Amino acid sequence: MSTPRPDLAAPHWLVQLLRSKPVPVPWNMVARAVFALAVPLAVAYAAGDIAVGALISTGALPAVLSESAGPYRYRARRLGGATLAATAGYLVGLLTGGTPALSVPAVILVAAVSALISAAGSNASVAGLQMFVFCVLGTGQHATGVRVEVLFGFFCLGAAWSYLVALLTWTVRATSPERTAVAHVYVELAAMLSATDEAVSRVARHRLTTAMNTAYDQLLTARSWLSGRDAAYRHLLNLLSATTPAVEASVALVNAGRRPPQAVIGHFVALSASVLASQPLPEPPPATGDDGDPLLAALYAGLVRIGKGDDRKRREPTPWYRRLRTWAGSLASGPLTWIAALRLTLCVAIAEVVGLLVPFERSYWITLTVGIVLKPDFGSVFGRAVLRGIGTLAGVGIGAVVLAAGGHGWALVALIALFAGGVAVGKVRNYGILSAFVTPLIILQMDLANTGSWNVVVARLVDTALGCVIVLVFGYLLWPGSRRPQVGGRLADGLDAVAKYVSHALVEASGGEARLARSRARRGAYRALA
């Protein structure tokens, strides 16, 4: 085979940008996205007005775009805040749309606010992005000819529907693979303690070691996919950690050629069944009268510790006024957030002016592209601009194919479902994949259902290209310091944050305030290293 010429090979940076993250497909998120976006269209089409379904489906977009893995309470706050922010932004866009003297200042102001509130945390950042995105989309809805109150009502209906879908499906989110792995540890413990032959016992010890490793691997891997704390995974991990003393005592007992009472073996079997059924753990059997045996005493102490493995108190939630004070302090302490807000505001203002000059209807996509690419805490501006352009080109190509095939009716519902699933996958795999599916999804929801014109496809492609050019020129090439990341200073700040955490971590906490300070220092170190 011939070796490809170096000058024909793709640039290394482009290969890195296009590389997909090796994470599992989030099938539960895919199912929720498909159900939330496709069902309103299907019901409306069956009732004879698919345009109404498209408007309701648009209201379901904020929750789908903000969806994230994590615990129930964390996602409820995240999606609730994002949905409320998107609703507020959409209303501002609807009220100011059609009048450039009102819509342009409103969009610029919302862009600045969304950048500033991003410093309050990841949930606030997602809410700020949704507020800006749907404010921009709302400014373009005056062209539909539908009254503002009707548009806003359909949007609220779709937002409530999507949030309800998420709430109903979260309650049945399974942790069965991890539960099975932890339960298997107790099964192997019982098998090892029941072995009567030395060779069988040796094999059982190896199987127990494998079961422990597998359980830890599955729990830590599952935990790494989450965006927040999860009570179910925390309980399983604490339970597995609390089992270690019992495992060590059991191995020592077997190595000494001893067998525990049958009640202990039965207790391990009962522990396995309780973990599988997600039921309260059974009480450990009472200790035998042989108090002089240190091995049995250690084993019974280990059984008692298993029952108390999740007794650690949860950290009290931070009051809202303290979070607000922390956010205000972050704005006052450094210029990074203000610089990012200024860059976003400037580029959005340029995009709004260009949108007034471009001879395309609904040229709000220019501003939309600028805002999504320049969101201050979403990584490389250059990389996101390139991926946005590539993904939009692919997405517009898909939209062109849909138009050429005459996608209407049930075919349109099926395509919306397909694109919704692609959005859920793209969120965790690659930003280019996300753009490739978001573009035709929004085109079908907000444009093709009303116009069905090839001009829509051309306009979306030109608008996105103009938005990417604005970002690359004014937000990257001409922006001071954007091509020379200040790694040295941030590395020094990171080392200072780590040193501060170490100074707290190596001293025994004397009270609640000391533990709180240590927790804050740890989170500060994590943020600095990230």
Explain how this protein is built.
α2 packs antiparallel against α3. The protein is mainly alpha-helical. The chain is elongated.
Map the helices and strands.
Blueprint (H helix, E strand, L loop, with lengths): L11 H7 L8 H21 L2 H10 L1 H6 L5 H25 L3 H18 L4 H18 L8 H23 L5 H19 L3 H28 L5 H25 L6 H16 L16 H14 L12 H14 L2 H22 L6 H11 L6 H24 L5 H20 L1 H18 L5 H24 L9 H19 L6 H18 L1
Helix pairs in contact: 2-3, 2-8, 2-18, 3-8, 3-19, 5-6, 5-7, 5-8, 6-7, 6-15, 7-16, 9-10, 9-11, 9-12, 10-11, 11-13, 15-16, 15-20, 16-20, 17-19, 17-20, 18-19, 21-22
InterPro entries: Memb_transporter_dom
Keywords: Cell membrane, Membrane, Transmembrane, Transmembrane helix
Pfam families: FUSC_2
N-to-C span: 43 Å
**Cα gyration radius (Å):** 28 Å
Round the mean pLDDT to the nearest integer and report it: 75
General shape: elongated
Give the helix proportion (percent range).
Answer: over 70%
Q: How many separate domains make up the residues?
A: 2
> What string gives the helices and strands in order?
HHHHHHHHHHHHHHHHHHHHHH
Strand content: under 5%
Give a quick account of the main beta sheet: strands, pairing sense, barrel closure: none
Oligomeric state of shown chains = single chain
- Helix-and-strand structural type: mainly alpha
DSSP E strands, number: 0
The count of helical stretches stands at: 22
Could you list the spans in which at least 5 consecutive residues all have pLDDT below 50?
Answer: 1-10, 310-314
InterPro entries: Memb_transporter_dom
Organism: Amycolatopsis vancoresmycina DSM 44592
Main location: membrane
Transmembrane segments: 33-58, 79-102, 108-138, 150-170, 338-360, 381-403, 409-426, 433-451, 457-479
